[in-house]
Amino acid sequence: KSDTLDHDEL
Amino acid sequence: NIFRAAGDLSHLISILILLNTIQKSRSIAGISLKTQILYVLVFLTRYLDLTYRYVSIYNTLMKLFFISSSIYIVYLMIYKFKNTETEQIDTFPIEYLIGGSFILSLIFNYKFQFGEILWSFSLWLESVAILPQLFMLQRTGEARTLTTHYIFALGAYRTLYIPNWIFRWISEGRVDYLAIFTGIVQTIIYSDFFYIYYHRVLKGFKFELP
Lengths: 10, 210
What we know:
By secondary structure, chain A is mostly loops. Chain A has no helix or strand. By secondary structure, chain B is mainly alpha-helical. Chain B has a two-stranded antiparallel sheet with strand order 1-2. The chains are: A little secondary structure, B mainly alpha. Chains A and B meet through loops of A and helix 1 and helix 3 of B.
């Protein structure tokens, strides 16, 4: 898991 | 999940209502150019990540749609249906919104990186981008029903994201505190409008501010 959040929203 | 889908749908509908209103009435009366310019900034800074981050075909298409439609709307407002009367009451000082969002994005971000700061900036800016439009409504005291539907659908998008975040927190353990906080700020800014919208527009009265 990456240390930044996955920006998967709009 | 259903909330996120409904939120995205409502976001999409808001843009379609706005485009349809402008094209049909061939007028941009009562629509804040400043708010629309802020949305171009929001979409550009948030969605340019589509050049280096792939999420899904849905995600990519939506991002492309929001970027292109927002630019197209500003183009229509400036070149095709220019309205000096509306411009004269569109006086909200947006440089403060942009400056404030920029400072907040430097303080609050997931990583001090260009892309992450842009992402945070777009969240902060989006939360206040409707202010020039609401300010204009307040000055004129009334609005065309379609304009109020547009603002409602736009506000509903972020409001519907709130249960989506709760859902994702429970089901995935995912918490995007920046998006949640700015989403709540945005919903609070809309709350007064939602209230009047519910009491007047939905009951068939003209949208007039008390």
